[in-house]
Amino acid sequence: MTVLSSRNPATGEETPTGLRATTTEEVDRVVTEAQAAVPALTALGREGRARLLEAMADRLEESRARLVESAMSETGLPRPRLEGEVGRTSFQLRLFAEAVREGSFLEAAIDHAGQTPLGPAPDVRRMLVPLGPVAVFGASNFPLAFSVPGGDTASAVAAGCPVVVKAHESHPLTSQLAFDALRAAVEDLGLPPGTVGLVHGREAGADLVVHPLIRAVGFTGSPAGGRALLDLVNARPDPIPFYGELGSLNPLVVTPGAAVARSAAIAEGLAASITGSAGQLCTKPGLVFVSAGEAGDVLVDELAAILAGSVAQPLLNVGIADSYREILVRLATAPGVTAAVTAQEQSEPAWAAAGLLVTGSAGLPEILEECFGPAAVVVRYANEADLVAALRQVPGSLTASIHSETDESVLTRRLVEAVAPIAGRLVFNGFPTGVRVSWAQHHGGPWPSTNTLHTSVGVTAVRRFLRPMVWQDAPQELLPEELRDEHTGTPRRVDGTLHT
């Protein structure tokens, strides 16, 4: 029996948790309970699921003080950031409740029987239905918003799927507290306990992914971890959807005009985006393209001065800190790379200082590796052709950002054409860190940033945990409420016409 411990990355202090790794037999029990909860979630209907999501938000808000204190001690993240995470997490639960009530996510469509140009046609009615129990892997860098009660859990519950979360090893106590809040909400509505479940330990995570009753997996983490889980999924007798958010360089381009017009402001914003949350954000701009010449020199010097004067911060755990230092050294020793800011060694193993590397576009292939922590690589480009050629070598990312001036519209359009194929979100004259939770958001991108076309943030994240189903010539009483003739509470396309 493996007993779990919790370590404060800021102090190195270890705390006993009273928790232990979940055994294979226990994983089976938890997943079986999740499957048993499917009928109750179905019977809830959309209004009931909306109330469940709101009850979860209420319970998390009630547990705010304990959650923040626990997360501070397990992640080293500052109180304001974690307070914001509680607010973000409860907000997204309530946003999904609104979406469930509104109903357009079902994509309901009705084609009545009748004559068509191809002859007589049957009555066909289509909508999206829940997949079944979903496995969610909590992320290290968001102990709330991408962990036990995070967006994957919220969107799966909104879809009508029971959820089993694999707690992250870096914050087991916070995971347990968050789970207790969600389970209390389930009990408030008299639902089966299997509506939400929790398992601990790496072996439990592997058992979860291969369990035959699990119908989809949501994962946020490293490319290596994602590949390992994807291999398990593909080895199943029945491969299931695996939605992985993995690694991202998030290129940011500063045009010559922008460097001349506002180098100080861009340098300040970049430094904040690189070092915010100790650089442990999936949208951190890790690759910054700056023009050669005096204006670019000024911007790079200003950025280096800010980063050199920034304070060291604790990373989420010693393993992440070790990886940060190893990758930074590897990048710094690549041909043509110089260190504008050297990340100074820290006495505490989980602490790390900011770093900044500089190279020319010719050295780009050697430095296309994510460095998870407060560091970035600046690539100096000679001209537009050099810049566009370099951007076409960048692997898929969650975001791409362009800082340009209004009189550079032709250049900006060409840059958009270059980066659009490699990014899921384009940011103009801003910075990619900070992901709005909304209907229009997309948090995804081409491989290796994700392995999916879907988003993990915002309302359409629910689409990952639904599948299409058609009823042909079905009696009215056997149809879902949303597909019956008399129903008016859901946007639907009827005989080709959208009814809202």
Brief write-up:
With 500 residues, the protein is α/β, with parallel strands linked by helices. The protein has helices spanning 24-36, 38-62, 64-75, 79-102, 151-159, 172-188, 202-210, 223-235, 256-275, 294-308, 318-332, 384-391, 409-419; strands at 3-7, 14-20, 109-111, 114-116, 119-121, 124-130, 134-137, 163-166, 196-199, 216-220, 242-245, 251-254, 287-291, 313-314, 338-341, 351-352, 355-360, 375-381, 397-403, 423-428, 466-472, 492-494, 497-499.
Please render the helix and strand layout as text:
Blueprint: E1 3-7, E2 14-20, H1 24-36, H2 38-62, H3 64-75, H4 79-102, E3 109-111, E4 114-116, E5 119-121, E6 124-130, E7 134-137, H5 151-159, E8 163-166, H6 172-188, E9 196-199, H7 202-210, E10 216-220, H8 223-235, E11 242-245, E12 251-254, H9 256-275, E13 287-291, H10 294-308, E14 313-314, H11 318-332, E15 338-341, E16 351-352, E17 355-360, E18 375-381, H12 384-391, E19 397-403, H13 409-419, E20 423-428, E21 466-472, E22 492-494, E23 497-499
Parallel strand pairs: 3-22, 7-8, 7-10, 8-9, 10-11, 12-13, 12-19, 13-18, 17-18, 19-20
Antiparallel strand pairs: 1-2, 3-6, 4-5, 6-21, 14-16, 15-17, 22-23
Helix pairs in contact: 1-7, 2-4, 2-6, 3-4, 3-6, 4-5, 9-10
